[in-house]
Amino acid sequence: MKELVEVIAKALVDNPDEVVVTEKEEGKNVTIELHVAASDMGKVIGKQGRIAKTIRTIVKAASSKDDKRVDVEII
Asked: What residues have CB less than 8 Å from 40, skipping those under 6 apart?
């Protein structure tokens, strides 16, 4: 899942070198933290959070077959 979030984020931002994705696993819960440059934050979140919501939906759909709960946090 980490690679999926990284590919999506790098395609959206102007500074793909500053995209950092970390993954923390606690049992069946996985937290993916996405760090981007301050100037790119709006591009990742989108108007009214639409892009962020879409990223979370894609990741949850991809993780459903692994029987894990994945949360994406944009920091």
From this structure: 12, 13, 14, 15, 18
* Domain, as residue range, for 37: 2-74
Domain CATH for 45: 3.30.300.20
| pLDDT given at position 41 | 95
Number of domains in the chain: 1
Phi, psi of 14 (to 5 degrees): -85, -25
Mean pLDDT of all residues belonging to the chain:
93
pTM (2 decimals)? Answer: 0.89
CA distance 28 to 41: 29
d(CA 62, CA 48): 24
